Amino acid sequence: MKHKISALLIILGLLCNVLPLYSIDDYYNFPKQSYKGSVTYESSRNLCLFSFASSSSDPTKEYLIKGIPSVLLSELRSLEYTYVEYPKPNVIYHSFGEAPTSTLQERIDAESPNLKRKKKEINDEKDLQDLRSGKKQLAPEKDPRYVKVTIKQLLDRKPPKPDEAFGLATKLNCDYMITGSFEVKDTELFTKVFLYDDFEGKTIPFEQKTSLTRAYQEMGPLGESIREKLQGKDTTTVEVSAAGEEGALVYLDGIYLGKTPLVGKKFPIGKRSLFVFKEGFHPYKQDVQLEKGKSFQVDVKLSLKLNNSFITVTSNVESDVYLGIQYLGKTPLNRIPIPAGMNRLRLSKEGYIDSFRAVDAADNGEVNVDVEMREGITEVYYKNKQNVFLDHTYKDFATYSLYGSLLFYASYVYLNYASRQAYSAARSQVTLVNASAISSFYGNNPNEFFFWYGVQNSIIDDAESKGRNLKRIAGTLPMENRKDRQLVAGPMVIMMGLMLVSAATFYILGLDEETVEFGYLPLNPSAVSYGQNAREGYGYMQFNLRY
């Protein structure tokens, strides 16, 4: 009989745990749900660069152990993506349900229209096949076949041998590994490089012979060959000039290639976005097509930006004046032409503290700036917190006010604690608190009872009076008022509020040209379209917190 009862209890326990599952199924309506499958592909790969092994033990050539990979690194820095025709899927979401029409992420986005997410262009292998066939075109940052490359320098590790690459790549999380060896013969340097591809499971060798004295200068082609191999796609030669203008920055798909005149740079074929930028000129942007076996040459013409605004700068001492990074001259300056827009003005003089001013020059307008230079050391003034703290500015009084609010808050906490302690001390002195005990005491000896009652009542009145006085001085904050969550004003609460208001007031009064800094930064080259107001940068405002 006992076994039957135990079995019944076990069955009832199982039913109690199983039945809620049906309610979950009904709530989420699992049988009618259907989602289209999707794939998330790899987004980055690690390129690990190791030191090189020497074939001899000559200590005078040890600098080449880290020197050679450092030179190769300078060529590989421009490698932002590697092209992988069949990228590795990270997560695969399988389809389920009847006639699925949208992926899980698309369903979530549809149910949350106010929540903005980056649209996913490639959801499955079919979309990827459309990219391969040319039916769909995407920028490299959206194309999963372009996998971002992150370079990890492991120059302090012992150079691995080719047969050790497989296990070491997994251990160090390296998708690609570059190592090698070198040998010095008389005045020649023989370099062997091994590029290990962990995904393909193969090692690609490279060799180059250079002179020992000019090895670093002559090793550029070796680094370029490795970079071309890592790019993983057919490349072509890119040559860009800017109608004789030197030093213009050249970008392809947002990747910096160099300065004009740009000659002999290799880049993967396909539709690309060319961007050329030089300070003082309008930016140039154009979509170009790089074709296999055909070098790309272009000579762009940059339009000069006219300085149609003026600035006049005066100061109490002769100082050097800079607008951004451009040197304007020494004060006083009278109607110097400058570009329109926001920028930062800096005045500098030996023995004086650098002064900064925000400049917002309107078209065909004039900006007048008068600066009073102060004696001191710029590095000490802006970096030494005590130096700035003790100059008694509005910001310092704001800090003092914050400290004052903390002091009054500490007093508020102490007074509330003392008020509670007054009640606690009185509670220990009140002996009879039970109604039946008081009634019995009164019946046995009325005279003694009245005396005792007077003493007890005096203790309670004194405690209540002291507690109320302390509480009245402290006040009550809303979060501590359990009765109605209202603010009860008291000297400590009022002074806390005044100190906080004073801190905010002093800080606002202290906002000057050196605290609120305006600046000018270049835009992401790939985000600028030629002809759109000729913007090559944007203005910004930031606060310089000096304490």
Q: Can you offer a commentary on this structure?
A:
This protein folds into four domains: 40-228, 3-Layer(aba) Sandwich (Rossmann fold), CATH 3.40.50; 234-299, Immunoglobulin-like; 309-383 and 518-543, Immunoglobulin-like (Sandwich); 395-508. It is built from 13 helices and 24 strands. It has helices at residues 2-28, 63-76, 104-111, 125-133, 165-172, 215-218, 220-231, 378-383, 385-389, 394-429, 435-444, 446-474, 491-509, and strands spanning 38-41, 44-54, 81-83, 89-93, 146-154, 176-185, 188-197, 202-211, 235-241, 249-252, 255-259, 262-268, 270-277, 284-290, 296-299, 309-315, 320-323, 326-330, 333-338, 341-348, 355-361, 366-371, 516-522, 537-543. Strand 10 (249-252) and strand 11 (255-259) form a beta hairpin. Keywords: Membrane, Transmembrane, Transmembrane helix. This is PEGA domain-containing protein. The chain crosses the membrane at residues 397-417, 487-509.
Give a quick set of tags describing it:
six-stranded mixed sheet, alpha+beta, Rossmann fold, Immunoglobulin-like, 4 domains, PEGA, 547 residues, membrane, 29% strand
CATH architecture of the largest domain: 3-Layer(aba) Sandwich
N-to-C span:
81 Å
Summarize the amount of helix as a percent range. 25-40%
Largest sheet: 6 strands, mixed
Structural class: alpha+beta
Kindly give the count of domains. 4
User: What fold name stands as the CATH topology of the largest domain?
Assistant: Rossmann fold
DSSP strand count: 24
Mean pLDDT: 78
Pfam family, one: PEGA
InterPro entries: PEGA
Domain PEGA: 245-303, 311-375
Keywords: Membrane, Transmembrane, Transmembrane helix
